[in-house]
Amino acid sequence: MGANTENKKTTLNSSSQYWLMKSEPDVFSIQDLKKNKTTLWEGVRNYQARNFMTKEMQVGDLVLFYHSNATPPGVAGLATVSKAAIPDPTQFDKKSEYFDPKATKEKPIWFCVEVKFVSEFPHFVSLEEIRKDAKLSEMMVIQKGSRLSIQPVKAKDFQHLQKLGQQS
To answer: Taking the CA atoms of the chain, what radius of gyration do you get in angstroms?
Structure first.
């Protein structure tokens, strides 16, 4: 992973919620988000993850940007929710792999939030490192069978992971 020379530490806000959002880096990486500044988190086709986006995520919530299906997988940086959930445009696009013939503009099924780049960690925090850290033992991402692409994160876990990611 390329290191970001900026040493940003995001301030935790007591009213914010914290999330881990997974993306395959060969599809969309933290570097892509850095280049693009923002992106719609489209293509999510899991009802629980959709409900997190529509019912719980709020503008300003902080996100651990996680590279999944990678060698190694892990947390690459930070993002923030920059726009509330809107209907996912890919559900209406017949050429998209995320097209859903049951969805209509009047009754969309799938939604997505917009996320904005905050920083790339100088130190990529691998899944193995997370597993070995006793302070992170309750994180959903290391629980057996937990494959959810969007997961809530406790403030203490977010803060600890951010600290790990800032190490050079």
So the answer is: 16
| 1 inside domain | no
Structure pTM? 0.90
| Dist CA 102 CA 18 (whole Å) | 32
Confidence of residue 147 (pLDDT cuts 50, 70, 90): confident
CATH number, domain containing residue 89: 3.10.590.10
125 close to 75: Cβ distance less than 8 angstroms: yes
H-helix or E-strand spanning residue 130: helix 127-132
Query: Tell me, what's the pLDDT at 6?
Result: 41
DSSP 3-state of 114 = strand
> Which residues form the domain of 85?
18-163
Residue 96 has pLDDT above 90, yes or no: yes
In total, how many domains does the chain have?
1
Largest CA distance in the chain: 49
Q: Which of 20, 12, 3, 39 is nearest to 119 (CA)?
A: 3
Residue 83 · residue 53 · CB < 8 Å: no
What phi and psi, each to the nearest 5 degrees, are found at residue 70?
A: -130, 170
pLDDT value at 2 more than 70: no
Query: Would you say residue 32 lies in a domain?
Result: yes
